[in-house]
Each structure stands twice: as C-alpha cells, then as structure tokens.
C-alpha cells in the first residue's frame, strides 16, 4: 500500500508547526521515512511541497532543513492575512451556500456559549474552524488555499493569547456572519478587517529553542490510502 504524499506532507508540516522539528534543523528522507513509517518516495514529494510553501529550505550540498523565517517575514504574515481575510469575507457574502451559513452560525453560537463560560481552549479551536469555514465560503479555492497556508505559518511563528473580552470577540464573529448572510460584501469586508486588526495585538513571536528533535514514532494516518 502506497501512502499518499499529501498525508506525509500534513504530518511533517504539523510537526514543524508544533516545534517537533525546530527551525534550521536538518530533515533527511531516511529520518522522516522511519519516523512516519513510510517509504522515501512520498517523503521526497512532501518535502518538495513544503519547500514551495516556505516551511522547508533545500541547501546545496546540505540537503533539506526547516526554514528560519526572519522577524520581518513573520510580521508580513499578519499583514498578508489582514489583507486577504477581508477579501475572503466579501467573497463569502457573494458566494456562500446555505450549508456554509449554517456551519458559521453554529460555530458562532458555540463560541459565544464557550466565551461566557470562559472555556479558552475550546475557543481557540472554534476560532480556527470559524475562519477556515469563512474562507471556504468565499468560493475561491486559490484564496482558501492561501489563507490556510497563512494560518499554518502564523501558528508556526506566533503564540496567540486569548482576548481579554472573548464575548466581544465572538460578537464580532457574529456580526461578520450577519453581513455574509445578508449578502453585504462591503460590511463583511470592513468588519473582518477590523477584527483582524484587533487580533494582531494578541500575537507574540515565538522564540525557537535549540535542541534535539523528539524521537517518538509518528505513524501517518493511512485512512485515505485505504479508500
């Protein structure tokens, strides 16, 4: 059974984002194949994809390494998201489906409930799902892919604090969904831009710690390969 390269790519990316593989650390095909329980072929393909996404850098005579973005490059990520998320919200107001709207409203209800209860960890996950669904509702696969890649990179580079008033943050999410539901593209764009601007102050740049890669075995999910 051949494990799809995209499954291996997801596993490596997740380990880079979570800090299992530190910035600047070397990545060998043999090491990764052994860690994920796959052959070297999907690993090679995955590394090419991750290099195109900016997570991996291949150096001549040195092989593949985890990239080491500068502070300026990290700051640019937030600026890019602040430009693209409002565009996605405006497109969502024009192209969303009833299914998208149902999911968005459900996430807002859950988020507001968890915010009132002070369940911060749940809010972090719900916020990610909200913005992912909003991007999908834009009806633009290229834009959705860019925003997904930005979210991964921002999670890699930044630690994000919870807002002091999470109830108000989720009220902003609710207002965005209301604008999307009405088909008001300009209001959806403006509200999302304000929300993105406010969230910037919650991001703290991570300082990478030098050390060894953890050696625990990480077997790739092979469900998609069986179907």
Question: What does this protein structure show overall?
Answer:
Helix content is 66%, strand content 7%. It is built from ten helices and five strands. α4 (71-95) packs antiparallel against α9 (185-199), α5 (98-117) runs antiparallel to α6 (120-136) and α5 (98-117) runs antiparallel to α8 (166-182).
Note the beta-strand portion. 5-15%
Helix and strand run: HEHHEEHHHHEHHEH
Question: What's the number of helices?
Answer: 10
Q: Outline, from the CA principal axes?
A: elongated
Low-confidence stretches: 211-217, 222-227
Main sheet record: 3 strands, antiparallel
Question: How far from one another are the termini?
Answer: 11 Å
Features:
227 residues; 66% helix; mainly alpha; two-stranded antiparallel ribbon
Element layout with pairings:
Blueprint: H1 5-17, E1 26-27, H2 29-36, H3 40-53, E2 56-59, E3 63-66, H4 71-95, H5 98-117, H6 120-136, H7 141-157, E4 158-160, H8 166-182, H9 185-199, E5 203-205, H10 223-226
Antiparallel strand pairs: 1-3, 2-3, 4-5
Quick structural summary:
The chain is mostly helical. Helix content is 66%, strand content 7%. Strand 2 (56-59) and strand 3 form a beta hairpin.
């Amino acid at each position: 059974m051949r494990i799809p390269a995209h499954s291996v790519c997801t596993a490596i990316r997740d380990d880079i984002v979570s800090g299992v593989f530190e910035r600047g650390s070397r990545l060998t095909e043999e090491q990764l194949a052994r860690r994920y329980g796959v052959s070297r072929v999907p690993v090679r393909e995955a590394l090419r994809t991750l290099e195109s996404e900016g997570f991996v850098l291949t150096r001549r005579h040195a092989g593949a390494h985890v990239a080491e973005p500068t502070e300026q490059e990290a700051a640019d990520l937030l600026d890019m998201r602040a430009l693209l998320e409002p565009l996605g919200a405006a497109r969502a107001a024009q192209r969303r489906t009833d299914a998208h709207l149902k999911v968005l409203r459900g996430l807002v209800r859950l988020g507001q409930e968890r915010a009132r209860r002070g369940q911060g960890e749940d809010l972090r996950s719900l916020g990610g799902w909200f913005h992912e669904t909003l991007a999908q509702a834009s009806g633009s696969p290229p834009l959705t892919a860019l925003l997904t890649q930005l979210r991964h990179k921002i999670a890699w580079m930044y630690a994000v604090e919870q807002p002091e008033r999470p109830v108000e943050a989720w009220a902003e999410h609710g207002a965005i969904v209301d604008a999307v539901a009405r088909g008001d593209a300009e209001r959806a764009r403006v509200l999302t831009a304000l929300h993105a601007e406010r969230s910037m102050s919650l991001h703290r740049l991570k300082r990478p710690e030098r050390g060894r890669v953890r050696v625990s075995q990480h077997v790739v999910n092979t469900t998609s390969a069986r179907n």
